[in-house]
Amino acid sequence: MMSLTKVSLSSVVRLQYRYKLKAYTGVFMGLILVQVIGILLTLVGSMQTSFSNNVYTVEVSMFSPSLVIILTIIWAFLNAILMTTKAYREDDFTFVSNRLSYNLSNMAFLLTACVIGAITALLSGGIIQLLTYITQDIDVFLTVTHEVSVGDYVAGAVVTLLYILLAATAGYLIGMMTQFNKRLIILIPVLLIGLNYIAQHNGNSGFVNILEFYFMEYSFSLFLLKAVVTLIIGSGLAILLSNRLEVR
Amino acid sequence: MKVIECERLVKAYCSMKALDQINFSIEENTITGLIGRNGAGKTTLLKIIAGFWRGTEGEVKVFNRSPFNNLEVSMNSIFVDDMMSFTYTLNLGEILDEAKAFYPNWDEEIAFALLEYFNFNPKQTHQSLSKGKRSTFNMIVGLAAKCPLTIFDEPTTGMDAAVRKDFYRALLKDYLIAPRTIIISSHHLDELEDILEDILLVDEGKKVLQLPVDELKEYAVTLSGRTAVVMQTLQDKEVIYKRDVNIDNCSVVVRNNFSHEEVKRLGIQVSPVTPTDICVYLTNQTKGAIDDVFNKS
Amino acid sequence: MVLNMDSTIPIYVQIAEWLENEILNGNLKIDDKVYSQYKLADMFTINPATAAKGLNLLYEEKILYNKRGLGKFVSHEAMTIILEKRKEMKLKGLLNEAVQEATRLQVTEEELLEMLKQIMKESKGE
Amino acid sequence: MGAILSIILIIIFWFIAMNKRLTQKSLTTKKLKLIFIGYISILILGTVSAFFLPSSEANMMEGLDPSGDMTDNLFMKAEQGEFSSIDKQRIADSWEYSYTGEKLTLSSDSYEEGILIERTDELKEAIEVFYIKDWQALGVNAAYMDVSEYTPDMGVELISDTLEFVSPEEEIIIELAFNELGFPMKQMIGESQFGNGYSSSGSRFFYIRVPEDLQIEFSEYLYVDYVNN
After folding, report:
1. Are C34 and C66 contained in the same domain?
2. Measured between beta carbons, which residues in chain A are less than 8 angstroms from residue D16?
3. What CA–CA distance (Å, rounded) separates B10 from C99?
4. Best mutation site among D43, D134, D140 for testing chain A: the one with the most A CBs within 10 Å?
5. Can you say whether the dihedral through the CA atoms of B62, B63, B68, B73 is positive or negative?
6. Is C22 in the same domain as C44?
7. Residue A1: pLDDT band by 50, 70, 90 thresholds?
């Protein structure tokens, strides 16, 4: 008889990960689209402050990759949700897979996508500057360099990646929950809005608290700790949920 | 050695039971036809065996393991149906290359030879294929994977008669080269029966019978003749189905477990029943025929 | 030869008959190795288990004998057994029909035997 | 902005939701690879070329409290007679005219800011005019940037007995572009994410030194003050 093939989880995860890189090209197309939209929006609607007297007006337009980063975060969130949907799952289970390998390869893929998303989002600053220079009638370019050290740049890049990863994890978890029970699609937003309302009613600031938990954390190491713990809890929950999921 | 063992397997959706206490086992290196009407629970059963779905109650063992969420079962089995989903971004040739990476027994030579034989362009995408072509491609993947457990769920959907014939031939040839356990669910039992070893007939989530095809061919006979005479002989026989009963003549399908000589002597004609017909009769829910619907009015 | 798949005769019986014909034709001689179940399966596009059943049928009738690990071979008595069997089956079948027809036509046993003797005499006389 | 963003978001969501269907026809892995490599190289090219773009260091103002009162205002200082203590860098321009007339008329079409006149016995038959320009702060989120070096200077012309303050042109728009860091970077260097577009100005004025006995005339539109000696 044909002998049963022994199989290691890691090799299957590796295969699936490789397959996903080839298969989910739409994810990267979406990334490019989202970032191009972000870059164009930044050029059109950059934030301005101005000073004016009747002799002259000084206008300072601010260009930053922030909008691109925000859109990339949203992209990561939506893509993570999409990856949990039936259509993507069916693709995965065509070949060898179990729930754990499916999740691990998904996460490895999302991590890759997020790293690429973070790098491109950060790089978009340069192209924004260049396009501003070409398309807009700017007298002087101003930059700030001396205040930011290389270490700050690296920390900022890591934080950017962590924000994107947090969004992806949130999306993945929410997606898994809704796959598990369709009713959650309605239930989750209702619950969140309800909780927020109650929190605000009781004098708390509701969601702002959650946002402040991350966005107002100025210490890199503390932020890292908060983010990593959130990521582990989120992905662990997603794996636990999907382990009972029926596929195909 | 038994490759699949099911014991009192139940799959329930709310109050509906897709599988109801089904018991059976499938021997290694056999080709089994899973036969049943639409909605009999064939797909449910196969998906549980493949490890995609979990049973509600009872026990399934594939290669002595519980298949749900089992990587080893997944690696050693392949489930082919017309819903098989491949990525849009790879063409057929690239999909076969990917499959090669996943399945250790993958037969690249056969895969590409079949691809050529069935006039596929390796540069095509799976999505651009017609329904029949898609089924043919899925079949190629199923065959070339050479998994110890190969499951075909309605593999011939959309295929024309010539391709179906080629498929059965290819399946058998491949089975002879690399014997493995194959389960095929199909509506075309008559085309398929020769390459099958066993038949597993299910109805309403229950096993009706599991027999070698040859035995199924001799499972029942039709007795036809004058109604009064035939009715007389039915007393000690197991009636499966009554057909064309009118005042003068009738034909009745009965279990073939008696000597034909004595009924022949009464002038009753004894004729065999094809496995396809037996399956239809055994799973007839209304215990009547479609004619009855029209006869009433 | 192509098997008659729609026939009422089970496939494995048809396989056995085909092999018998091969022996009768002299295509398979005494002590020749007969086709394996896999070869037969390939030739007729049937399940090897069915083919094996056909071979077994012949083995049980001692038309074939087994050599351990080598397969099945045509036995010395194969020809005789096949001829005996065919005679038995064919003649008996024809006679059976004759008897049934006689009953239907209300021909008595004596009359029927008389007819048989007459026919045999005529055929010998020629 | 919020409305635009939400519309864009809907479009993005729609796209991503459809994108499995969109990509099924044309985009193979190979094509995508090319597109992606193209995109990344454009980004890298942009980043590299951005280094070579002419740019100036922004003059960030540390510790500026725009709401506080400006006691160290240069105008006030000068008004108190402490002109000599003013940083020479703050004097954007200066002119010297010899002048023998007894009466000087100040005039301007557009100048609306302060003019300080110091009568001094140090000067005989001469006038000194200084244009003093302090910082010009624009709020960039929570930080303040001094843009005074880009604002135009005023000019002065002496025609017979009239001192004319001239602005370069009627209305000048100075467009500055400020390259900011992405918000996660700023979070890590401890800057607040949420600022406003407050602008605040230091002082800008003409300081005119004239002989003690010179008679000065000016229209009521001009804001003229004398130094307290």
Report:
1. yes
2. 26, 30, 75, 78-79, 82
3. 56
4. D43
5. negative
6. yes
7. very low
Residues 208-227 on D with a CB inside 8 Å of A are: none
Structure tokens at A99: 């729930």
Q: Is residue C3 part of a domain?
A: no
Confidence of residue A233 (pLDDT cuts 50, 70, 90): very high
What is the predicted ipTM? Answer: 0.78
| CB under 8 A, 24+ apart: contacts of A17-20 | A17/A105, A17/A108, A17/A109, A17/A112, A18/B101, A19/A95, A19/A105, A19/B87, A19/B98, A19/B101, A19/B102, A20/A92, A20/A105, A20/A106, A20/A109
At A163, the pLDDT band (50, 70, 90 cuts) reads very high
Q: Residues C38-87: pLDDT tens digits?
A: 899 998 888 999 899 999 999 998 899 988 888 889 998 888 888 888 88
Instruction: State whether C96 and C65 are in the same domain.
Output: no
At B240, the pLDDT band (50, 70, 90 cuts) reads: confident
CATH topology for the B219-296 domain: Alpha-Beta Plaits (3.30.70)
Nearest CA distance, C28 vs chain B (angstrom): 24
More confident residue, B71 or A204: B71
Structure-block tokens of residue B13: 């959706």
pLDDT at A6: 80
Exposed / middle / buried, residue D138 (Cβ in 10 Å: 0-12, 13-18, 19+): buried
Same domain for C38 and C62: yes
Q: What is the pLDDT of residues B252-293, one digit of tens each?
A: 888 888 888 788 878 888 888 888 888 888 887 655 566 666
Domain ranges (residues) in chain A: 9-180+217-242
> Cβ contacts (< 8 Å) between A217 and chain D: which residues?
187
Which class for B295: exposed (0-12), middle (13-18), buried (19 or more C-beta within 10 A)?
A: exposed
CATH no. of B2-215: 3.40.50.300
Residues of C with CB under 8 A from a CB of B: 5-6, 8, 10-12, 38, 41-42, 44-50, 53, 100
